Amino acid sequence: MSNAADLTAADQAIAALRSGHDDLAPRVRAMRPEELTGPSGASEWSVAQVLSHLGSGAEINLATLDAALGRADAPDGDFNKRVWARWDAMTPTDQAEGFLRANAELVDRYESLDATTRENLRIDLGFLPQPVDVATAAGFRLMEYALHAWDVEVASDPRATVAPEAVPLLLDRLGMFFGFIAHPDALAGRHGTLAVNLTDPDRSFGLDLGDAVTQIDAPGRPDGVLRAPAEAWLRLATGRLAPEHTPASVTVDGGPVSLDDLRRLFPGY
C-alpha cells in the first residue's frame, strides 16, 4: 500500500474525488423527495438542482476525459448545452439518481488510469488555452465537487464542513479564481493588505485588497489579520460562510475590512 507521501498530485485529487463520492452517495440515496426539493447551501438552487449541476458536470468531465483517452470523439461546441438541457428537464428524483450514476462513472474512469497515464495524459477542458494534465483536470473537478457537496450536506446539517481530504488540495488553487469570484467594488474604494492565518492545515499568506483582489506572500506589516480554519476560509472565499455557518474561531482584527465586508467581497457562485 502506498505511503501518502508517495502519492502524486493526480493520485491525491482522484482519491479525494473517491472519498467525496463515497461520503455523499449514501446521503443522497437516503433523501426523501421533500429534501431533494428543499433549499441547499447554494442560495438559488434546491438540493436536487445542486445534484443536477454535479451530475451534468460529471458527464461533461467524462466526455473530455474519454476524448483525451481516445475512447470517444471530442465534444462539439453545443455538447454542454445539450447536457445541461437534458438534466434541467429531469425530475428531482431523476436528478439525484442521475448524479449517483454519472459521478460514479467519472470517478471510476479516473481511478482506472495507470501511473503513466496519470502523468502523461493531457485533457482539453474546452475553456482553457491549452490541454492540462490529469492533476489539474481532477483538481478543477474536486474544487467544484467538494464545495457543492457541502451545499447538499448543509441542507440537513448546519455544522457541515468541506471534506478534510479536499481542503489542502484546494487551498493552493483558490487564488487563481479571485478574478472571477471576488467583487472588489464591495469594498467601496478601500485598500489595504490582510494577513490570512489558517489552521488544519496551517497556511499563511496575504490578500492585497484594492481595485482587484490578489493573493500575495504573507505581509510583514499587514493592515489587518484574518484567522480561520482552512476549510472555513474556503467557504468564505466561495460565498458559503453565512453567520449561522461560521465557526467561533473565525476572526478579523484591525484593517480596512470586517468579516461582513469579506462576505460581500466574496458573494459566492
UniProtKB/TrEMBL annotation:
Q: Which residues form the SCP2 domain?
A: 184-244
Mycothiol-dependent maleylpyruvate isomerase metal-binding domain span: 17-153
Domain of life the protein comes from: Bacteria
One Pfam annotation, family name? MDMPI_N
InterPro entries with a match to the protein in the record: DinB/YfiT-like, Maleyloyr_isom, MDMPI_metal-binding, SCP2_sterol-bd_dom, SCP2_sterol-bd_dom_sf
Q: What GO molecular function annotations does the UniProt record carry, in alphabetical order?
A: metal ion binding
Q: Give the residue range of the signal peptide.
A: none
Query: Under which name does UniProt file this protein?
Result: Maleylpyruvate isomerase family mycothiol-dependent enzyme
* Organism of derivation: Planosporangium mesophilum
Lineage start: Bacteria, Bacillati, Actinomycetota, Actinomycetes, Micromonosporales
